[in-house]
């Protein structure tokens, strides 16, 4: 039964090859779209079958490894292409294929009429393949294949409209940025892999974790390994300091942003930490850093989101911020809570992006929320689902975001510190504020666009149905993990418990208990969210005159946020420009052409100069030769005689 | 009988005249004649030794030298004429293209 | 069948030579006939080598299909050929790339076609000879012989400064190889000074006496060989002939230059430097590895700022070959296997990149990156193939480049010979930079808006061009997904070399213990006291 997992991966691969090789010939968008999304849907069904099969099995029999074939083996290295199907990976498979399928269906409508229709679906299918390889890999090397593979698909899809302008450059520049920043992270992952191999003598998850258990907590090699892994994770999951690529990644088509840059790929870093939970648990120092990185990113990105005007841009910063929450959860050892938030976030963030896509679609490619307004009567379905998602992300009970975020915050307080909780709570206010700023500016109030030119209209069925499905999931998604304190069974926690048992044991985490303080904190976070929503509603809808006053009062802060803390500019000045300058002026034109090649050509020139001088001896006058000749004889004679 | 030294002294004198001529004169013909002079001074010393030692070998060798010299004179003069035709001069300083 | 197996290598070698000879008698005006003949002859060679590959027994470390015919008796020089796991893949890549580069030249070579075909086949003959010779003298003859056709290929069918580039290439390589000749002669002489010894250039015999070579002499011998190989690879800082040669050479020349010729250097390191002079290898290892790492990063950084496509690819070769050298000198099974695979991978991906640049050049007659932009819209098939090749070159997991790179990094990270993992970590930085320059190049050529009106009329690849690239792409994916086909053939020979080196290291160490004051480190500066021969 579990062997079927191969087909879960192979089906999208078939879709990729089918659309990639034949798509251009087929011409029928229907066939391309049907095949493209059909294979993902089938994958989802298969994964569901496997899931229910696993559900029926006793806990200890659930994790299984499915071997495919021998991959790279040399010396003592032996790697297999093998899939590890356990509670964690099947959950991810379900998210990837499930949300993936919904977004594929949405794309059928969204991409209609695009000349690269077939190309889009083949890339999307390839992404699903890579993501599945990532989550199912049973060793680090295969994991890396998926890891880079999703990066590649992200690159291809961000630059999908490769000649379209995007901000100061084109979409393909944004794509390059994404790939390269990710490569920096991959560097960390790569070196971590080398270190893991040297330390544990294997790259197989099973053997590595088994051998890691034998090490003592806080060993230097473990800290190094986990720190390097963290670099990889910050790249893929857009955390400080490698988050800069994600806002630019919005250059891609909106379904891409929803699937890759919100629901699945960017969570790969979180998944990786969850997968390596034992290694991280053994390195408490790294765990602290993970938590701090997460908390800082959560607030940092949310604050930038406060003032941005691009609808997708705000959502991008929101994603970074939410990923920060997941990191925070991982960092305090609340792996289940992190995975729970990953799940709910996949629902409501995908929904937000798809809703934004519907808005952009309706506004004829307009993305600036300052030029929207009053769209709720034109786009009723989109509006309703969008508000549901916004409430969910703001953490209003009983929507999904409330449960997952609250669990993270509680764990941050309980297993971390009050500082982490405070950062999380602060992030929550900001989140509620910018989300409802977005809602208000887009859907409420009066139109700020030119009604003569733009005629907003509701999206077709293929787009609205996915919105509704995701809205339902955003509402009920939280019920998988209702905490004990609210009388729930925390189904998700129970399901994942065996996966993280090892890590929890190492960290000696307290068993879940109901505390009074938990309710207090819960109340606080909900109240904060409500404050945020109310604030946004007040400032942007009811008392608009407040806004200019606020802005001018905090002009400096506003500028700083508007310019995203100048991080891009700082990287440009400190890394990008010097690299190019040094490479060109110093290394190429200086060292290479002048010094090295100069030396080579110089030697050749010296030889020719010496020859040029010495050839002057040949004057061509026979008498001169004769004089030298006679002189020579006289000298020899003289030497013989004397 | 004239002592051998006399022959040798004359031969050396003639040879030196020839060398000096080859080195200093500019006219190719004269240079050429000086070379002949050197050749013949050597012949003279050969004959001198031959007579002094009563051995005919030296005189036979001189005949060979004279035959070769005749041939050489023919070729040499031909070259000089060819050069003159090309360059309209027999001044040795101007015949200097055999270089670099 | 038995006869075939005994003479298969001579057959592989003879096919292009006979082809070249036969091509000389085809009338020059039979243009298409000549092209077809050249492709046919080299394809036959490839097919024969495929048979060789299939018949090759991966479970043996020794030379296989050995043939030995006496040649110069007085010096014990013989026509002695054979393949082992080290040379097998290189023979394959040679026979694989030659027909493809001939096919790629179908339209781009317009004059003196007969001479071109003859030189290409003769070049193939020379390259194959280098890889299958197991006699140092024979190796040297082929090493030099292969320079001549390459010299003419660059000098006759090259770009504007072809003469400069051809002469630079020739003299630079020649300079290195003359020192190698001296070393070869010295080795033969050394053999004759042994008890009951005689002058010989036979590699197995030399290997047998190699441990007796005194340490100081090893240093000099190593340097003589290594300089020649380092120039060929080319290692930083001996690389400046490469950009010139590549830029000026015609496409086919560049492909074979990058795909095959450069590997002769790295092959030479594995075949001669390591086993013949182990003590010198240990001594120079940190320096060579440092140069390799510098080459990796330096090549990548310089590639980043090139404005000429071919130059960019040429400098990227410096970077990629740096990995190979690092892998060789890490002296672990993983890294050596990685180096072998990386040699093949580099041949495929860089060869394909040169083919791709050639295809663009044929259309626009320029290689300036700034002249392009947005070609994807006009040339979708080209864009796809280019993308795959580029990804292979930047080492995307799942394609061929990654397998070699990863094994090299893994091996050099854990190598006891290198002693530190700093080399591997620094080399990993190259992985980032590789992505930067390749993506940046691809972005400027293929993506963005189509700004130049000259590019509007560009035609997508024709069938011939697709046929040229497709086999390469097949192998790019094959090696990436199932490298075992190739790794299995090489593992035993690599194991043997590593074993040999480890034994030599143990020997060197124990000697050092016996005579603590006089380790080989100090002895190199104190030649009078050196005598490590027991």
Structure notes:
Chain A is mainly α and 642 residues long. Chain A contains 25 helices and 4 strands. In chain A, strands 1-2 form a two-stranded antiparallel sheet. In chain A, strands 3-4 form a two-stranded antiparallel sheet. Chain A starts with a helix and ends with a helix. The relative contact order of chain A is 0.07. Chain B has helices at 4-24, 28-53, 57-87. In chain B, 12% of the residues are buried. The model of chain B has no long low-confidence stretch (mean pLDDT 90). Helix content of chain B is 78%, strand content 0%. Chain B is elongated, with a radius of gyration of 17 Å. Chain B is mostly helical and 100 residues long. Chain B starts with a helix and ends in a 13-residue tail after the last helix. Chain B contains 3 helices and no strands. By secondary structure, chain C is mainly alpha-helical. Chain C is 74% helix and 3% strand. Chain C has a two-stranded antiparallel sheet with strand order 1-2. In chain C, strand 1 and strand 2 (77-83) form a beta hairpin. The longest helix of chain C has 32 residues, at 162-193. The radius of gyration of chain C is 23 Å and the shape is globular. The chains are: A mainly alpha (642), B mainly alpha (100), C mainly alpha (534). At the A-C interface, strand 1, helix 5, helix 6 and helix 24 of A face helix 7, helix 12, helix 14, helix 17 and helix 18 of C.
List descriptors.
heterotrimer, A: about 650 residues, mainly alpha, two-stranded antiparallel ribbon, 25 helices, about 75% helix, globular, B: about 100 residues, about 0% strand
In short:
Chain A has 25 helices and four strands. Chain A has 642 residues and is mostly helical.
Helices of chain A, by number, come to: 25
Over all CA atoms, what is the radius of gyration of chain C? 23 Å
Gap from first CA to last CA of chain C: 47 Å
What distance separates the N and C termini of chain A? 110 Å
- Structural class label of chain A: mainly alpha
Topology of helices and strands:
The complex is a heterotrimer of chains A (642), B (100) and C (534).
Chain A: H1 5-26, H2 29-56, E1 64-74, E2 77-85, H3 87-110, H4 117-136, H5 140-158, E3 165-166, E4 169-170, H6 171-200, H7 205-213, H8 220-236, H9 245-248, H10 254-263, H11 268-275, H12 277-281, H13 284-305, H14 311-331, H15 335-362, H16 380-394, H17 400-416, H18 418-443, H19 461-476, H20 491-507, H21 516-542, H22 546-553, H23 555-562, H24 567-614, H25 622-641
Antiparallel strand pairs in A: 1-2, 3-4
Helix pairs in contact in A: 1-2, 1-4, 2-3, 2-4, 3-4, 3-10, 3-15, 3-19, 4-5, 5-6, 5-10, 6-8, 8-11, 8-13, 10-15, 13-14, 13-18, 14-15, 14-17, 14-18, 15-16, 15-17, 15-19, 15-20, 16-18, 16-19, 17-18, 17-21, 18-21
Chain B: H1 4-24, H2 28-53, H3 57-87
Helix pairs in contact in B: 1-2, 2-3
Chain C: H1 2-24, H2 31-55, E1 64-72, E2 77-83, H3 85-104, H4 113-132, H5 136-145, H6 147-157, H7 162-193, H8 203-209, H9 215-232, H10 241-248, H11 251-276, H12 278-304, H13 309-330, H14 333-364, H15 375-378, H16 380-393, H17 400-414, H18 422-446, H19 463-481, H20 484-514, H21 520-523
Antiparallel strand pairs in C: 1-2
